[in-house]
């Protein structure tokens, strides 16, 4: 063989060896990162039309108590509940073309959150997920904007009649009080409270129907079949 051919062959052998070594270390690093630092690995959980919802989205919403009151009554299924809420929000916001200025509400929400869980914990939790306060503000903005849109769409259109109040008083309130061994208050003293309860229930039903209609028309892809099992497998304490 000519010395030139041997030189080329030697160069090819060196290049191939170099590629193998580089590939090995790349794969090793990926596996090492996955198993040693699982919290840093994000994953797409769902796609709502063209917007993604990630594992980090669900974790942050849980960590900062965005749906704390609603979650309290759940014994299981917290990740899926949060996912459903995030899907609802994105669908409603995607449909809306309104420009809603809620900067003051966002800052007030952030202030209350910081006072409740502490500035140090807020900063520590954000650091865990590689976020800053501006990133957290985006989550707060979306939540408040969704509430505003729902209020504008259904808040003024829901009417509660006196018959509905009376039926609720006799059919729901009185039986509950008697079951507790308590004397029911006169209906006249509870008019505002009962009206608010009925209104909230009606709005909730309207919102559910509206969101379900939006879902039927949207392209929603759930990327994880069993979200609860997925969280268990990857060691999350979100449940």
Report on this structure.
The longest helix has 34 residues, at 3-36. The chain has 10 helices and 3 strands; from the N terminus they run αββααααααααβα. With 239 residues, the chain is mainly alpha-helical. The protein has a 3-stranded antiparallel β-sheet. The protein has 2 domains: 1-36; 37-159 and 191-233, Orthogonal Bundle (Triger factor/SurA peptide-binding fold), CATH 1.10.4030. The protein starts with a helix and ends in a 6-residue tail after the last helix.
Q: Secondary-structure element sequence? A: HEEHHHHHHHHEH
CATH superfamily of the largest domain: Porin chaperone SurA, peptide-binding domain
Q: Can you name the CATH architecture of the largest domain?
A: Orthogonal Bundle
Structural class of the helix and strand makeup?
mainly alpha
Our estimate of the beta-strand percent is 5-15%
Mean pLDDT, to the nearest integer, reads 81
Tell me the radius of gyration: 27 Å
Largest sheet: 3 strands, antiparallel
Rough outline: globular
Number of domains: 2
Q: What percent of residues adopt helix (DSSP H or I)?
A: 55-70%
Tally of contiguous helical segments: 10
Low-pLDDT runs:
14-40
Strand order of the largest sheet: 2-1-3
Assign the CATH topology of the largest domain.
Triger factor/SurA peptide-binding fold
């Amino acid at each position: 063989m000519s010395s030139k051919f041997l030189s080329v062959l030697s160069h090819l052998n060196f290049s191939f060896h170099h590629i193998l070594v580089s590939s090995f270390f790349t794969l090793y690093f990926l596996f090492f990162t996955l198993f040693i630092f699982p919290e840093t690995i994000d994953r797409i959980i769902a796609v709502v039309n063209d917007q993604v919802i990630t594992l980090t989205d669900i974790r942050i919403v849980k960590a900062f108590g965005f749906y704390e009151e609603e979650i309290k009554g759940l014994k299981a299924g917290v990740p899926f509940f949060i996912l459903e809420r995030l899907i609802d929000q994105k669908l409603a916001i995607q449909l809306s073309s309104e420009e809603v200025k809620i900067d003051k509400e966002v800052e007030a929400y952030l202030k209350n959150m910081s006072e409740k869980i502490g500035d140090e914990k807020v900063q520590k939790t954000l650091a865990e997920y590689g976020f800053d306060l501006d990133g957290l503000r985006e989550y707060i903005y979306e939540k408040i904007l969704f509430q505003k849109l729902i209020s504008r769409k259904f808040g003024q259109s829901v009417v509660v009649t006196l018959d509905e109040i009376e039926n609720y008083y006799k059919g729901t309130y009185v039986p509950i009080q008697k079951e507790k061994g308590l004397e029911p208050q006169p209906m006249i003293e509870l008019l505002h409270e009962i009206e608010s309860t009925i209104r909230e229930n009606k709005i909730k039903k309207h919102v559910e129907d509206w969101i379900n209609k939006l879902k039927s028309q949207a392209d929603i892809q759930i990327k994880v079949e069993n979200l609860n099992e997925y969280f268990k497998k990857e060691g999350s304490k979100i449940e």
